[in-house]
Amino acid sequence: MKEVAQEALQYLQDNLLLSIVLAAIAGFAGMKTVSQAKKTNPALFFIVGALGVFLGQFAIRYLGIKDVLDQVSEFSVIFDLLAAYIGAFVVGAIVHMFSPH
Q: Cα separation of 56 and 79, whole Å?
């Protein structure tokens, strides 16, 4: 599991700009899906998004779907965004569960 986490982290470091953009988009979308609050913190979007991007990449590698996704490499950004959104949704749900209402 440690090797999978290191591989996911290396992917994020190699594609730093894409990771930052995906973190912002996925964090915003994930938090807005989970929480309907009018005012939310943009820094929280980014933190949730960054954790979501990592979690999504980790899941892709851990479940072994990376080989399948490499066959359709022209859609890699879409799959990365989808994985990041799902990861941000999970992280956002955990944050929302422990936040005061």
A: 10
